[in-house]
Design a protein that fits this description.
This protein has 246 residues and is mainly β. It folds into two domains: 1-30, no CATH class; 44-245, no CATH class. The protein is built from one helix and ten strands; from the N terminus they run αββββββββββ. The chain has one helix at 3-18, and strands at residues 53-64, 83-85, 87-95, 100-109, 112-121, 132-138, 153-167, 170-185, 209-220, 235-245. An eight-stranded antiparallel β-barrel has the order 1-3-4-5-7-8-9-10. The radius of gyration is 18 Å and the shape is globular. The two termini are 29 Å apart. 33% of the residues are buried. Bound molecules: copper (II) ion. Copper (II) ion (CU) binds at residues 138-139, 146, 158, 179, 181.
Length: 246
């Protein structure tokens, strides 16, 4: 039984056993089953024709901050103060079932030609389902998957692993952690701001705009640095405002 189905059955069983004495809030968050959701869709693996093969291009890429920012930077930059457009694309061609395939971004940044390449997919947490997963809720404080650096959102496709970067053909980063996620819109299409945490948030679906779609991706050092946000020595972070499914 796929892991998500097993978790759902276990959760349902626990709810029955506990009866009406157990409020829904006490159930462990399930990244595929959000309490209060009014749309239910089938998981990818519940479709006869699901082939697990996602081919996507990401465009309108933006870099947050810069390569050589002095310590104390904010590379989440929800206010979009240090965001700049860069030319180039991110190309994804993966098998979500087998956890194989490629992620590569080729970008022109102020310092030159930057290439980010995923070298091996890796599951850092069970919700990542082998390193590549489709159709889960991620991030926020209650999605059941990921940290709260981003709002809770539907991840149409996400991948985690280790990769490297080159700048003008020379090694820049090696064996760094990488993550990409194609999600509902987190950034306003005009201001590029992330409205998170949202003051006076009333609704459970997270601080996203499901009328838009985008990608975030980063390469980050294993070395921490508490003065930076996120608290890493390196956290090179991009987002893209256009996604093409092929
Ligand atoms: Cu993510």
């Amino acid at each position: 039984m796929p892991r998500f189905l097993a978790a759902a059955v276990a959760t349902a069983g626990a709810a029955v056993w506990l009866g009406s004495a157990a409020p829904a809030a006490q159930q462990a968050p399930n990244p595929r089953q959000q309490p209060g959701a009014t749309v239910h869709i089938f998981a990818p693996e519940q479709h006869d024709l699901y082939d697990g093969h996602f081919i996507m291009s990401a465009n309108r890429i933006h870099l947050i901050g810069g390569l050589n920012d002095p310590e104390g930077w904010d590379h989440l930059d929800n206010d979009a103060k240090t965001v700049r457009p860069v030319s180039g694309t991110a190309e994804i061609d993966v098998d979500e079932i087998k956890n194989t395939g490629t992620f590569e971004a080729r970008l022109k940044i102020p310092e030159g030609d930057l290439v980010l390449t995923m070298d091996r997919w890796n599951e850092f947490s069970p919700c990542q389902n082998g390193g590549i997963v489709a159709y889960i809720h991620e991030h926020g404080t209650d999605s059941g998957c990921g940290d709260n650096n981003w709002p809770k959102t539907v991840g149409f496709l996400a991948g985690w692993g280790f990769g490297h970067a080159t700048l003008n053909g020379k090694p820049l980063y090696q064996d760094y952690e990488m993550h990409f996620m194609v999600t509902q819109g987190l950034r306003d299409r005009k201001t590029l701001r992330v409205n998170y945490p949202l003051a006076g948030k009333m609704l459970p679906g997270g601080e996203t705009n499901p009328a838009t779609q985008q990608i975030d991706f980063y390469i980050r050092s294993p070395q921490p640095n508490a003065k930076n946000r996120p608290a890493r020595q390196v956290f090179l972070h991009f987002f893209g405002m256009e996604i093409t499914w092929k």
